[in-house]
Amino acid sequence: MTVRMEEPGLAGARSVRRTAWALLIVPVVALAVPQAQATEPATAATRATAPIPAPTLDGAAPAAGLQTIVLAGGCFWGVQAVFQHTQGVTAAVSGYAGGDQQTAHYEMVGSGQTGHAESVSVTFDPRQISYGRVLQIYFAVAHDPTELNRQGPDVGTQYRSAIFYADDEQRRIAADYITQLDKAHAFHRPIATRLEALRAFYPAEDYHQDFAVLHPHYPYIVFNDLPKVENLKKLFPDVYRDTPVTVMATSKPGG
Asked: For 58-73, b where at least 16 C-beta lie within 10 A, e where not — what string?
């Protein structure tokens, strides 16, 4: 998959507000990249009052079989990038959840009126990484769970923090973990993450897939998403991998 700068998809890949913001910082990107990666918060962990504890309740690892959880936490570019670099994750696909199939299109979701949230379907091998560990990474580095209907420069219900659970066990573990983190005052503010039953997940347009991998110098990625990947490496070195698992690779024959 190749994304060209003149493509309507890329030109409209973010809102007019975000595009204007990105253009303002283009002249300083070359100088700002090292500093941005070192100092940009861009993660919940840096806003916490204490280290993010692991969940006390976790799922039992089955003898075999993959599991999937759909997570929303702002722009799906960054959430996808974090889990693409997480060992044990076999696929991380950007898409939409919370609304109907006919409105699962970027331009419509961007209106904030569809019920959809930009989301990432994370498929993982529980023999390598547990569901609870996936949630720990989600809360710690993938986004700020205390922001209501926004993430950084992105505002609207389509950028809400939400866990779209597939079954009662996923809901129960996530709910228990949120309660645990709030009781521990892990963050300066209460967690705003919503638990929503997964009705369906709709993969996003091709030009959104692997966006951070394909466009590491895109200003939005530099300032908002690369620091998340760096914090994954710093805070979870045991599950960090340098080579990301990509949609491009997994969609190839034999991939």
From this structure: bbeeeeeeebebbbbb
Residue 1 lies in a domain: no
**Nearest-5° angle of CA 148, CA 150, CA 152?**
125
Identity at 253, one-letter amino acid code: P
Q: Is residue 177 part of a domain?
A: yes
Question: Tens digit of pLDDT for each residue in 102-134?
Answer: 999 999 999 999 999 999 999 999 999 999 999
* pTM to 2 decimal places: 0.84
- 3 domain-assigned: no
Tell me what percent of the residues of the chain surpass a pLDDT of 90.
Answer: 75
Please report, for the domain that includes residue 150, its CATH number. Answer: 3.30.1060.10
Catalytic residue among 22, 42, 75, 134: 75
2 found inside a domain: no
- What span, in angstroms and rounded, lies between the C-alpha atoms of 202 and 13? 17
| Structure confidence by residue, pLDDT tens digits, 42-86 | 455 445 555 699 999 997 766 669 999 999 999 999 999 999 999
Which of 102-126 are b and which e, b meaning 16 or more Cβ less than 10 Å from the residue's Cβ? ebbebebbbebebbbbbbbbbbbbb
Domain of residue 245: give its range.
8-251
Verify whether residue 75 is a known catalytic residue: yes
pLDDT exceeds 60 at position 19:
no
- How many separate domains does the chain show? 1
